[in-house]
Automatic annotation (TrEMBL):
InterPro entries: Cro/C1-type_HTH (IPR001387), Lambda_DNA-bd_dom_sf (IPR010982), MLTR_LBD (IPR041413). It comes from Schumannella soli. SMART domains: HTH_XRE. Residues 9-81 form the HTH cro/C1-type domain. This is Helix-turn-helix domain-containing protein. GO terms for molecular function: DNA binding.
Length: 278
């Protein structure tokens, strides 16, 4: 671990990132450009003290998971992310693993959606990052590891995760998730990762085997979705999808019709979520 170079790199990237780049107001009292330490620490999901120690060359060696969060918070490119890993004493992620790094352009859009449920998925259906309101609506996906990071795997391996949708809607969602997995299974870039999911589910879930045998392709999620939340009840939201053709990542944005009961519930959920995270 090269503490000196790591500290310099983090400081330079923090100072190069402007408040407007991450959806923050500049404010009249900001004397210099760039983000403050407390701002970048919040974006990276760490304490200000932890970030400060890294910049002061006295912090612990960050884990690979922490480095991934730093790369997203700083809006690093794939090459800059690899450099960050090497400075921190880790092997640079293989180019083939670029699927788990949110592209800077997509991250900038997400930063401007802080008060909206939004999330970024890779081409296998793994959640890469969520806004706070998306976590409040759908649950926090950051703690999943291994195959459980893949949405369709959780759908069959842990059926309780389906409860975010009303029971009547679950068969349709399950069919679409399975069709999306089949698309990944037939695509060279995702075949190896998708094969691991398929093999595991065929060995453990008769329900998956039955749906998989249908060979459904190109099924689409409904744009208008219903969600079942244990605290605010049922919400009806529209889902807009933005696909980055270069990375294959998908940005999902959920919105409610202004003035509707679902809009009121979403506003209440924002308050409940903020208290929960605090």
């Amino acid at each position: 671990m090269d503490r000196i170079q790591l500290a310099d790199f983090l400081r330079s990237r923090r100072e190069a990132l402007q408040p407007e780049d991450v959806g923050l107001p500049r404010g009249p009292r900001r004397r210099t450009g760039g983000l403050r330490r407390e701002e970048i620490a919040q974006l990276c999901g760490m304490s200000t003290d932890y970030w400060s120690r890294l910049e002061q060359q006295r912090g612990p060696q960050p884990s690979e998971q922490m480095l991934g969060a730093i790369a997203r918070g700083l809006h690093l490119s794939v090459d800059e992310r690899a450099h960050l890993f090497r400075l921190a004493g880790h092997a640079a992620p293989e180019a083939a693993r670029a699927w788990d790094h949110v592209s800077p352009g997509v991250q900038r859009i997400l930063d401007r959606l802080g008060d909206t449920p939004a999330m970024v998925l890779n081409d296998l259906g793994e959640t890469l990052v969520q806004t706070p309101l998306a976590r409040a609506l759908l649950g926090d996906h950051s703690g999943y590891t291994g195959l459980s990071k893949v949405n369709v795997y959780r759908w069959y391996a842990d059926p309780a995760t389906r409860d975010v949708y009303p029971r009547d809607d679950q068969p349709e969602h399950g069919a679409v998730f399975t069709a999306e997995l089949r698309s990944a299974y037939s695509t060279p870039a995702t075949r190896a990762r998708a094969t691991a999911v398929v093999d595991a589910l065929l060995a453990s879930s008769p329900e998956f085997a039955e749906v998989w045998a249908r060979h459904d392709v190109r099924l689409k999620h409904p744009r208008h979705k219903r969600f079942a939340h244990p605290e605010v009840g049922e919400l009806e939201l529209d889902c807009q999808t933005l696909v980055d053709p270069e990375s294959g990542q998908t940005l999902l944005v959920f919105t409610a019709t202004p003035g509707s009961p679902s809009a009121e519930k979403l506003a209440l959920l924002a308050v409940i979520g903020a208290r929960s995270f605090a």
